């Protein structure tokens, strides 16, 4: 039995109740054996056993009072997974599905994603099972303040720097930062995704979506192709999806779908990004509102999706951009995309494709950009925000966007060259996993057993 399989089997027995975490570990460990064989020091130093366990998991109670004066109780978490190359860095997710296993999967992915950016940041993730939907601004403020009362003692500008994720946008980051500042009396870059008037960075909002498109461009460029003129299917309607659509339009492509938890919009004329922003960022409404404002758009509720499939992936397209959530694209979806002629998949969400879907994409030979590489633009720009905070300076939008573009080019080159080094040219899953892993593993060996 291989070293990687042995470690995975042990984890499976120990954490059988955390399927998302085990899926993330399996996806990484199944590609690392060539690197482990090439450098026996990794096994000798038990790197897999050490890198698959968080350095620290913080679980706390969050108590707050709603607008009716009733006490509400939620669970909060911070998974500080690995700090070998820098302070823990990763988002906070507020969603009813949040639990320790989901956050461990996200934190584990974050280790390698952050490593790939080439910047000095480690991996972490956190959040709560609190649901912001339907809550007033005052309720969200009170929850964020209660959440930070528990979290503040474990984070800091050189310790752990959280950001946003699903359910945590600029509004939530503002409330969280205000609470941190009051609790610590420190004005420092402890959270990223802040407002521009208190330490935020231009282009941070756009970064994950833009970065995913930049990565797709590099994949296609290596194949003598481009996104220009391509019809694109995009899932999600949050921050990543909105700005993925915006950048696709800027490079001459046509996104024709977006989706949320209730249904999907399909518009053969192309998504109107300004109206999408109005609906989701200003009105915070369902996509049914988008359909009301755009006569050419067709809205289909989730109940009417084809059995076992996500409607977005049934739309004929040249390129697909899953930008919603984990496991939103299964094997049947992958088969449908491939049968409809899709030649490029770039993941804007975290682990949006199941392992079977990933294997189908790899077997087909299409341009496939895995999440830890393709969606690393968000955390890369968060690190650029940390740099600006540390130097008490602010860069222009073009400066930040230019740095982001170069980071995404370098991530692609690193993953592509590593895949070629190990004899599987074009397999960016293996390339990204090994490239991200080696940097962290070498740092862990250099720092000793702590």
Commentary on this structure:
The structure is a single chain. By secondary structure, this protein is α/β, with parallel strands linked by helices. The protein folds into two domains: 186 residues, Rossmann fold, CATH 3.40.50.10860; 159 residues, NAD(P)-binding Rossmann-like Domain (Rossmann fold, 3-Layer(aba) Sandwich), CATH 3.40.50. It has 17 helices and 13 strands. The chain has a five-stranded mixed sheet with strand order 1-2-4-3-5. A five-stranded parallel sheet has the order 7-6-11-12-13, sandwiched between helices. β6, α9 and β7 form a beta-alpha-beta unit. The radius of gyration is 21 Å and the shape is globular. The chain starts with a helix and ends with a helix. The model has no long low-confidence stretch (mean pLDDT 97).
Strand order of the largest sheet: 1-2-4-3-5
Q: At the fourth CATH level, what is the homologous superfamily of the largest domain? A: Leucine Dehydrogenase, chain A, domain 1
Radius of gyration: 21 Å
According to DSSP, the number of beta strands is 13
> What is the CATH fold-level name of the largest domain?
Rossmann fold
What number of domains?
A: 2
- The number of distinct helices, counting runs of at least 4 residues, comes to 17
Average pLDDT number:
97
End-to-end gap: 28 Å
Largest sheet: 5 strands, mixed
The CATH architecture classification of the largest domain is 3-Layer(aba) Sandwich
Query: Are there runs of 5+ residues with pLDDT below 50, and where?
Result: none
């Amino acid at each position: 039995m291989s070293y990687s399989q042995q470690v995975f089997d042990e984890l499976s027995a120990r954490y059988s109740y955390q399927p998302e975490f085990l899926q993330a570990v399996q996806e990484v460990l199944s590609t690392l054996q060539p690197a482990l064989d090439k450098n026996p020091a990794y096994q000798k130093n038990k790197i897999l056993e050490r890198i698959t366990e968080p350095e620290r998991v913080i679980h706390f109670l969050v108590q707050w009072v709603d607008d009716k004066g009733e006490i509400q109780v939620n669970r909060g978490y911070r998974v500080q997974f690995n700090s070998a190359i820098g302070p823990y860095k990763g988002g906070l997710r507020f969603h009813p599905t949040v639990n320790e296993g989901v956050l461990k999967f996200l934190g584990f992915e974050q280790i390698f994603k952050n490593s790939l950016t080439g910047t000095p940041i480690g991996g972490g993730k956190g959040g709560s099972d609190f649901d912001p939907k339907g809550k007033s601004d005052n309720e969200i403020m009170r929850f964020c303040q209660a959440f930070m009362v528990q979290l503040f003692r474990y984070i800091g500008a050189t310790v752990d720097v959280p950001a946003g994720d699903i359910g945590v946008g600029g509004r939530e980051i503002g409330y969280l930062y205000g609470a941190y500042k009051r609790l610590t009396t420190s004005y420092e870059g402890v959270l990223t995704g802040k407002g521009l008037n208190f330490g935020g960075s231009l282009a941070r909002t756009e970064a994950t979506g833009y970065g995913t498109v930049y990565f797709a461009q590099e994949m296609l460029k290596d194949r003598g192709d481009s996104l220009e003129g391509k019809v694109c299917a995009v899932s999600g309607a949050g921050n990543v999806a909105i700005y993925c659509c915006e950048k696709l339009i800027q490079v001459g492509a046509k996104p024709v779908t977006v989706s949320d938890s209730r249904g999907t919009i399909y518009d053969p004329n192309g998504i109107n990004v300004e109206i999408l922003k109005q609906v989701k960022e200003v009105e915070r409404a369902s996509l049914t509102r988008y359909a009301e404002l755009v006569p050419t758009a067709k809205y289909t509720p989730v109940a009417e999706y084809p059995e076992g499939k996500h409607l977005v992936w049934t739309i004929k397209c040249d390129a697909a951009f899953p930008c919603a959530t984990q496991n939103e694209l299964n094997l049947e979806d992958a088969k449908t995309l491939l049968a409809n002629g899709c030649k490029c998949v770039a993941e804007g969400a975290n682990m949006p494709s199941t392992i079977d879907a990933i294997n189908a994409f790899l077997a087909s030979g299409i341009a496939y950009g895995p999440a830890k590489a393709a969606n690393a633009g968000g955390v890369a720009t968060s690190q650029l925000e940390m740099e600006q905070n540390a130097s008490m300076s602010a860069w222009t939008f073009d400066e930040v966007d230019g740095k982001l573009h170069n980071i995404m080019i370098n991530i692609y080159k690193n993953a592509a060259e590593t895949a070629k080094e190990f004899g599987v040219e074009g397999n960016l899953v293996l390339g990204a996993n090994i490239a991200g892993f080696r940097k962290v593993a070498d740092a862990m060996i250099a720092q000793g057993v702590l």
